Amino acid sequence: MWSYALEKPNTGSIFNIAWSIDGTQLAGACGNGHVIFAHVVEQRWEWKNFEITLIKRRTMEVHNVINDAVDLLEFRDRVIKASLNYGHLVVSTSLQCYVFSTKNWNTPLIFDLKEGTVSLILQAERHFLLVDGGGLYLYSYEGRLISSPKFPGMRTDILNVQTVSLSNDTLAVKDKADEKVIYIFEALSGKPLGDGKPLTHKAEIVEIALDQKGLTSERKIAFIDKNRDLYITSVKRFGKEQKIVKIGTMVQTLAWNDTSNILCGIQDTRFTVWYYPNTVYVDKDLLPKTLYEKDASEFSKNPQIVSFVGNQITIRRADGSLIHLNISPYPAILHEYVSSSKWEDAVRLCRFVKDQTMWACLAAMAVANKDMATAEIAYASIGEIDKVQYINSIKDLPSKESRMAHILLFSGNTQEAETLLLQTGLIYQAIQVNINLYNWDRALELAVKHKTHVDTVLAYRQKFLEDFGKKETNKRFLQYAEGLEVDWNKIKAKIEMEIARERERAAASPAVRASVTVQQ
User: Fold this and answer.
1) Is residue 302 in a domain?
2) Start-to-end Cα distance in the chain
3) Domain IFT80/172/WDR35 TPR, which positions (predicted)?
4) Contacts of 54 (CB under 8 A, 6+ apart)
């Protein structure tokens, strides 16, 4: 806690005080029998080149620091809440909501509020959220009510910026009744996302944040739990399991960038920026190389990140003072190039910047977008020679499905790779993938089920055991090995025939093959 202002009214001792419900007025019982009323003023909001100050109960001053222009905004009733972001100022008074564009301060859009006590305003690029005693209301910047999401046992009075998060397509709200649960809604319809089941974590959740850019299908949510571990997961589920991955420890506060999916946080004594958090789904080993870290001791105890706009981060220290930090603008430019598939520009940028962190980000981005030519250049630039060799081996595979499956394997998505191969009838390749990963039971199960290459599995298993000087103890392998002679010449001929057949299929029906898509 810190002191904003000190007033010494000439009223004797103040024996009792009470705040109004909206937190903007204060009443005090004085020793001389008077009642004193006070109002909160001088609140400030900043965004890019605009600085807005509440100078009176019903008046705001807008200062454009670029041209020193000053505008006064007058309101009919007293200002209760305000938010400035994404080129718009949203102000709620006791009866109305005003929406100003930073391009024109003269003609705000005004609509009436059902309840006057707005307790929270959250903004995204396309719309904003109002929270009052009655519920959650999502409005467009034209003042149109888009949706009003609801969930069981909803209590709006306790929601704040740490427990609600909004992006262009998604709204996330932490449950108060069960603090391990996050409800996720489609912003436009207000309905629960996907199958309607909320996101559930193993420990209580403290803070949540949705990323702001990119495709809806790739929307990510980051959250801190009570152990101060930082996790990231996709809001949409592909398959049964939701992959919740830990990417940081001892994290006190976090924020996503407003224009690209870069995450920053303060963990322990370090200020950390995850330039491409999605790396954890693509190549876990690469994640530490995509981070920027800085000593955070200057922020003192319990700092809070207020905003992350462009390449500037604003942090509030425990004494209330604000500190502004700047990070490199290049990672955001790299994100922009990749989202537009400008791979040559991305490579050129990394060569210009000559930074290992940038190359590591580009490598992960290229693999995520299945651009293996760019991935090869990026991995070579950070000295990951084994991965360059693996990418080269992917290029030589006979069909698009095989290449896609091995890209999935490269990212550690074994189950998805196998499913893709089985769906497209590449049974041998699915078996071989499991042999390469030493998933012997699964390899044999597939061979027996599809009545093909049982001898191939047994031959590779036998060679594996011989290399390690061990004997077969697995009952299923012993059962199928009975009376079966391993002939490597036959097996090699069969494998060559499978590869030739796959090449023929790929050449015969490119249009059909190209239609196969994989969701990570």
Assistant:
1) yes
2) 45
3) 358-504
4) 40, 41, 42, 43, 44, 60, 79, 82
